[in-house]
Write a structure and sequence with these properties.
The complex is a heterotrimer of chains A (about 160), B (about 800) and C (about 280). Chain A has about 160 residues and is an alpha+beta fold. Chain A has two domains: about 80 residues, Ubiquitin-like (UB roll) (Roll), CATH 3.10.20; about 70 residues, DNA polymerase, domain 1. Chain A is built from five helices and five strands. Chain A has a five-stranded mixed sheet, covered by helices on one side. Chain B is of the alpha+beta class and about 800 residues long. Among the domains of chain B are: about 160 residues, Aldehyde Oxidoreductase, domain 4 (2-Layer Sandwich); about 240 residues, Aldehyde Oxidoreductase, domain 4. Chain B has a seven-stranded mixed sheet with strand order 3-5-1-12-9-10-11. A five-stranded mixed sheet of chain B has the order 7-15-14-13-8. In chain B, strands 18-26-27-28 form a four-stranded mixed sheet, sandwiched between helices. The relative contact order of chain B is 0.13. In chain C, the strands form four sheets. A five-stranded antiparallel sheet of chain C has the order 4-5-10-6-7. In chain C, a hairpin with a 2-residue loop joins strand 8 and strand 9. Chain C folds into three domains: about 45 residues, Uridine Diphospho-n-acetylenolpyruvylglucosamine Reductase, domain 2 (2-Layer Sandwich), CATH 3.30.43; about 110 residues, Uridine Diphospho-n-acetylenolpyruvylglucosamine Reductase, domain 3; about 110 residues, Enolase-like, domain 1 (2-Layer Sandwich), CATH 3.30.390. Classes of the chains: A alpha+beta (about 160), B alpha+beta (about 800), C alpha+beta (about 280). Chains in contact: A-B, A-C, B-C. At the A-B interface, helix 2, helix 3, helix 4 and helix 5 of A face helix 1 and helix 19 of B. The site of one FE2/S2 (inorganic) cluster (FES) has 11 residues of chain A, from loops.
């Protein structure tokens, strides 16, 4: 079983990564096992849970549905790379303020999804926020507080606010 | 951090201390850990629900790339005892070969000669990578001889049913009756109104987003076994593994629970992997081994919940008073008992059967059977989800029968005086059930419901409103009582509280957080009582090296039991600090009080010693009161006098699409009373989670088996979990009735309201369809079920 | 899983050659079917030919004949967000906006959602109703196939070994279109989805195409419904009566919807989709 490595060059959390990856390797496994970025989680094999959601070129993606090889040439951002050091993005801070984290397993994926939403629509209403969570299962039930957190970001953004 | 002088810390909605590392992706869960030299495991499941294992040939698999060894049941059977069952409620017989400690053994970690459910573990591959381990599984050759299968609890008891265990004739584990049957029967016979209903409650799968995982390492040098596993009960696992499974000294085992990605009851067990990874690491010369389950594996082998069929009878008079309630429940434990599996369908369901109502003649019995299915055990709302669904549906059926408003029937029958003995074994501590009901009715605008129904009809929707009140036993529990209930173990809370020389505090708790915010809420108690900034309080938990034997987290016990233990520890620290302070200030002890972090002379607050100054003197011990031990540290073991009983009323408003049968939950109101709270924001979060965990089984979640014992749902493509867009904004409120049972006045809050949503929603759907003559619908109320009802109704498809 | 090989094609020609000459080769687009279970474990030793680096496969624009041309690698999100599609082909925009969840829409592609003729795909029914042409390129050159001919049976299509979908062309013919979906609560795919396109002549139904997905083994034109509507004044009664013609099909079933229920949903969604398409056609 001669396994051909696939050469890839990608940016992960702002740092260039040049390496060779096994052709079958999923992006989520590359991030977790090869790069040690275990903030990105795995919850299913079938694409439903969204625990593995990251940003690829700023767009939310389920990293269990992508090969590491496919990330060649792309910019990947995981939860570890959202903020500098111990700082928090406004969204992370809002998750904290509004208790949008319980066990925290779904949190990295939800942060990636909601980051994408806010980039597209800086002032989403509650129904839009809920729909944008369709790809993220939280079994602890933080959804309502995620709505509050995203609304806080919208309201605090310059020029934002008001439904 | 919160300003300590701004008000009491306990109860304040302060931000969680747990969150920064979770928000930065730095928190380590079991699957995130890697040890040097670690091997990866993949497990071969039985594809058959019932089969004799004639042979297992691992030779081809062992030659696969990266494979180090393949283990079968025969390789480990003489290296470990059977997995114990530690909850055998009175009457549950020990059918299985006993343990040296008199415990009934159940399953072997790997099957040796027979598989009794799909997914049962047959063999384990250890390989250099996870991919290689999984790739080798198909190369294992197993020869099976298929046996007949039974999957239904009631069928399992019938003559001629396939038998699972020679030790358990007719597959019966136990028959568990409570209450006075003759009195209840007589009351039913004499009643003006009698309503009977069969209520089937299918299985629910907890489906934590994080699957189960374990890493085991045996150190050949020290002989120490270390287990990292996502367990809710690290100390319980430690004790069971050391004493009941491996038979090694207690102090040669260490169990660490890293961060846990949700559990909801599903991780509060001793599963086969826990002792197995330790034995395998030993057999592999000390190489650490790691097992991470798949979602499919979770569906097959992580416990399921619910799965009960009740034949219920409610009896009373036309004035709305209920005189008797009886239910006969058929439930399956699965193919074996999980270590605490028998508890939920027996004691937890049975004793909770009368809900919030004073019913003079209650009776409950449960037939608990073995079937060719996965284990059943507790889940968020364990046992009380089932009991509450049954009683709350029966109350509505009774109300309909006598033509009385369901809210009125509830109010008429609520328990009014406390403490109240419900006749089935619970003693309700305190409550104001009508208060919560009235608040919920006001919030939902109960009086305007008829108008809203008419308005919805214009849009082709049938609007329905449903109530569910609840009383949920929480705060497990007084240890002597739990012993009588059949729990082999204890349930007190324990705390080590240490004030260091610097005034910094270390709190060691036996509880095990997996989302419930223990670090924050526990710090709040200590912060308030000792006047210490929460940031200076370290909370240690979840590692049995350093944390004394303790209970872990389940059954809404943590805050009202462990919290009370912490509170007690803080009082003892305060008292010692007061004595030292008085001594050092040379003031009479009676004249000194400990307030706001200081030992202070009453009436002259400027004369005071701050805790750090006292602490340093306590540890240096240069000048302590006569006979006093040095140090400022206490250990408490706090056993509650009894369980506590949170309560509330939830109201669901649904709209049923007349064409498709789809049920939309359009409003959800909840009023809960958990006594005083530790952190209002955290409690609200727990309520959100409990409600979502109840909406799921009400509307979509279900697991079942085909007649040949295959699971119907094996993945999240086949098992629906409610998502954000499927749920409305929850409208929450609380009333506050402190419990007299602990100094905090706090009741359990983690899963207590979970039993409300399903009956509220079912009652709402039945209300929406009432004019079609609908009396009852079993959960989940799927669109298709409702459509079939609409279709068979006299006026056909609506409109 | 272990045996998968990977090749990133730089051009369409290279992709076609790789697919035609490599045993067990499969095109890889968004990967949201191929790389997830249960498909993933069936890949065996497949060589995945990644189309992601090929330029020009995700353009959306009008052809000289006024049809909308959509590249096969266009993501579902791009379909949903495209202003031309929203204006001229609302059924397509509606269907795209209801596919799965945001992450899926961000990466799953038009070509990928057609190529397998997945019985629960939303877009297959829409392309049938909108009379789309699929442009294919294979070892023997290029060809155009009407959506009607592209879908040939359960999970079967007109694609031959090595052939790729390059783009889809949808005529802009006026009238109105709409898509109605009943979501599968677990997969979020279509338990039943109905797409309709209606044009009106003097207030009566002229050309009309209606197709169902999810409920049947594969997306299927409801020619009986179309015939029943043709020439009728599209009153609520007429539409309801026509929906009864959505029968005689082989309906699928699973624990979330039996064949009878899906047959019923088909009738309901036909009414809803046609009603909205008519409103848009007015
Ligand atoms: C959680 C989830 C929810 C989803 N919900 C929906 C839904 O609601 N509705 C819906 O319609 N779909 C849904 N999907 C499916 C999603 O849209 C698909 O995964 C998608 O349709 C496949 O597109 P892809 O680009 O990911 O293709 P891939 O997975 O890369 O490929 C799929 C198939 O198409 C072939 N292929 C790809 N591109 C071409 C091409 N240009 N020419 C020829 N063959 C090609 C591949 O070889 C393969 O056989 C869902 C998926 C997930 C994971
Ligand atoms: S791991 Fe579940 S969607 Fe990716
Ligand atoms: S916080 Fe636990 S799964 Fe979302």
């Amino acid at each position: 079983m001669a396994e051909q490595g696939v050469p890839v060059t990608l940016t992960v959390n702002g740092r260039e990564v040049r390496t060779s990856v096994p052709p079958y390797l999923l992006l989520v496994d590359f991030l977790r096992d090869t790069l040690g970025l275990t903030g990105t989680k795995v919850g299913c094999e079938t694409g439903q849970c969204g625990a593995c959601t990251i940003l690829v070129d700023g767009i939310s993606a389920k990293s269990c549905a992508m090969l590491a090889a496919q990330a060649d040439g792309h910019q990947v951002t995981t939860v570890e790379g959202m903020a500098q050091g111990s700082a928090m993005t406004p969204l992370q801070a809002a998750f904290w303020d509004k208790h949008a984290v319980q066990c925290g397993y779904c949190t990295p994926g939800l942060l990636a999804s909601m980051t994408d939403l806010l980039q597209r629509n800086p002032d989403p209403n509650a129904a839009e926020i809920r729909r944008w969570m369709d790809g993220n299962i939280c079994r602890c039930g933080v959804y309502q507080n995620v709505v509050r957190a995203v609304r806080q970001v919208a309201e605090q953004a310059p020029g934002g606010g008001g439904e | 951090m919160a300003n300590l002088l701004a008000g009491p810390m306990i109860g304040a909605p302060i931000k969680r201390r747990e969150d920064p590392e979770l928000l930065h992706g730095q928190a380590k869960f079991t699957a995130d850990l890697t040890l040097p030299g670690m091997l990866h495991l993949a497990v071969l499941h039985s594809p058959h629900a019932h089969a004799v294992i004639k042979s297992i040939d691992t030779s081809a698999a062992e030659k696969m790339p990266g494979v180090v060894r393949v283990f079968t049941g025969k390789d480990v059977v003489d290296k470990m005892m059977r997995l114990p069952v530690i909850w055998k409620p009175a009457g549950v017989e020990s059918h299985f070969p006993p343990h040296p400690y008199g415990l009934p053994g159940a399953q072997t970690a790997l099957a040796t000669d027979r598989a009794r459910y799909v997914g049962e573990w047959l063999a384990i591959v250890a390989a250099e990578t996870r991919e290689q381990a999984y790739a080798a599984l198909p190369a294992i050759q197993v020869e099976y001889e298929l046996l007949p299968v039974v999957v239904d609890a009631e069928e399992a008891m019938k003559a001629g049913a396939p038998q699972l265990h020679a030790e358990a004739p007719n597959n019966l584990c136990t028959h568990f009756p409570i209450g006075d049957k003759a009195a209840a029967e007589q009351s039913v016979a004499e009643a003006e109104v009698v309503v009977k209903q069969k209520i089937s409650i299918p299985r629910q799968v907890h489906n934590a987003v994080e699957t189960r995982a374990s890493i085991g390492r045996f150190d050949p040098e020290s002989g120490e076994y270390t287990l990292w596993t996502n367990t809710q009960i690290p100390a319980g696992n430690h004790y069971m593994i050391a004493s009941l499974v491996l038979g090694v000294p207690y102090n040669k085992v260490r169990v660490i629970a890293p961060h846990i990605g949700g559990a909801y009851g599903s991780k509060g067990y001793l599963y086969p992997d826990a002792p197995l990874v330790l034995v395998l690491s030993r057999e592999l010369g000390g190489r650490p081994v790691k097992w991470v389950d798949t979602r499919e594996g979770l569906f097959r082998t992580t416990v399921h919940a619910r799965g009960q069929t009740h034949y219920a009878t409610i009896a009373g008079s036309h004035d709305g008073k209920i005189s008797a309630f009886m239910s006969t429940n058929y439930a399956s434990l699965g193919a074996y008992s999980s270590h605490n599996g028998p508890g939920a369908p027996t004691a937890l369901t049975g004793r909770s059967m009368t809900g919030a109502y004073a019913i003079p003649h209650p009776f409950y019995e449960c037939y608990l059977t073995y079937t060719n299915t996965n284990f059943v055990g507790p889940a968020r709302g364990a046992g009380r989800f089932e009991s509450n669904l049954v009683i709350e549906r029966m109350i509505d059926l009774f109300a309909r029968e006598i033509g009385m408003d369901p809210a009125e029937v509830r109010r008429k029958n609520f328990v009014q005086t406390f403490p109240y003995d419900n006749g089935l074994g619970w003693n309700y501590d305190s409550g104001n059930y009508a208060g919560a009901l009235d608040r919920a009715l006001a919030m939902v605008g109960y009086d305007e419901i008829p108008q809203r129904k008419a308005e919805a009809r214009q849009r082709g929707k049938r609007l329905g409103v449903g109530l569910a009140s609840y009383v949920t036993v929480a705060g497990v529990g007084p240890s002597p009582r739990m012993g009588r209930e059949g729990l082999i173990g204890s349930t007190w809370g324990n705390t080590v509280l240490r004030v260091h020389q610097t005034g910094d505090v270390t709190l060691i708790t036996g509880s095990q957080p997996h989302g419930q915010s223990h670090v924050t809420t526990f710090s709040q108690i200590v912060a308030q009582e000792l006047g210490v900034d929460p940031e200076r309080i370290e909370v240690i938990h979840s590692d049995t090296k350093g944390v004394p034997y303790a209970q872990g987290s389940y059954g809404s016990r943590t805050y009202s039991v462990e919290g009370a233990s912490i509170y007690e520890a803080a009082q003892r620290i305060k008292e010692k600090a007061r004595l030292i302070g008085a001594h050092l200030m040379e003031v009479a002890v009676e004249d000194v009080e400990f307030v706001e972090g200081k030992a202070r002379v009453k009436g002259s607050p400027e004369k005071a010693m701050a805790l750090p100054d006292i602490a340093v003197m306590a540890w240096f011990a240069w000048n302590l009161p006569q006979g006093m031990e040095p140090g400022l540290e206490v250990t408490t073991y706090w056993d509650p006098a009894d369980f506590n009983f949170p309560f509330g009323t939830h109201i669901a408003v649904v709209e049923v699409d007349e064409q498709t049968g789809q049920v939309d939950l359009v409003r959800y109101v909840s009023v809960d009373d958990v006594g005083n709270v530790g952190n209002a924001m955290v409690v609200e979060g727990q309520m959100h989670g409990s409600i979502a965990f109840g909406i799921g089984p009400a509307l979509m979640e279900t697991e079942s088996y085909t007649p040949d014992g295959q699971l119907v749902a094996n993945s999240l493509r086949e098992y629906a979990i409610p998502r954000a867009s499927m749920m409305p904004h929850f409208e929450l409120d609380r009333t506050v009735t402190p419990t007299p049972l602990n100094a905090l006045g706090a009741k359990g809050a983690g899963d207590v309201s979970q039993p409300a949503p399903a009956p509220a929603i079912l009652n709402a759907v039945v209300d929406a369809l009432a004019d079609l003559g609908v009396r009852h619908i079993d959960n989940p109320v799927t669109s298709e079920k409702v459509w079939r009802i609409l279709q068979s109704a006299p006026h056909g498809k609506g409109q | 899983m272990l045996a998968i090989q990977y090749k990133a094609a730089q051009s369409l020609d290279e992709a076609v050659t790789l697919l035609a000459t490599t045993a067990g080769a499969r095109a890889l687009a968004g990967g949201h079917t191929l790389l997830l279970e249960p498909t993933r474990s069936q890949l065996g030793a497949a060589t995945l030919v990644d189309l992601g680096k090929i330029q020009g496969l995700n353009d959306i624009g009008f052809t000289r004949t006024g049809a909308l041309r959509i590249g096969a690698m266009t993501t579902i999100a791009a379909l949903a967000d495209n202003a031309d599609i929203q204006r001229d082909l609302p059924a397509l925009a509606e269907a795209a906006s209801q596919v799965g969840d945001p992450q899926v829409r961000n990466w799953a592609t038009l070509g990928g959602s057609l190529a397998d003729n997945d019985p629960e795909s939303d877009l297959t029914a829409v392309l049938l109703a909108l009379d789309a042409q699929l442009h294919l390129q294979g070892p023997n050159g290029t060809r155009a196939v009407a959506a009607d001919q592209f879908i040939t049976g359960p999970r079967q299509t007109a694609l031959t070994q090595g052939e790729l979908i390059t783009d889809v062309r949808i005529p802009i013919v006026g009238g109105g279109s709409a898509y109605e979906k009943f979501k599968h609560p677990a997969t979020l795919y279509a338990l039943c989805g109905v797409a309709a396109h209606v044009s009106l002549i003097d207030g009566k139904v002229g050309a009309c195409r209606v197709a169902v997905t999810g409920a049947t083994e594969y997306a299927t034109r409801l020619t009986g419904v179309e015939a029943a509507l043709a020439g009728q004044e599209p009153t609520a009664e007429a539409i309801a009566a026509a929906s009864e013609a959505a029968s005689g099909l082989a309906f699928r079933g699973d624990p979330f919807g039996s064949p009878e229920y899906r047959a019923h949903l088909t009738r309901v969604l036909v009414q809803r989709a046609v009603t909205r398409a008519v409103e848009r056609a007015r």
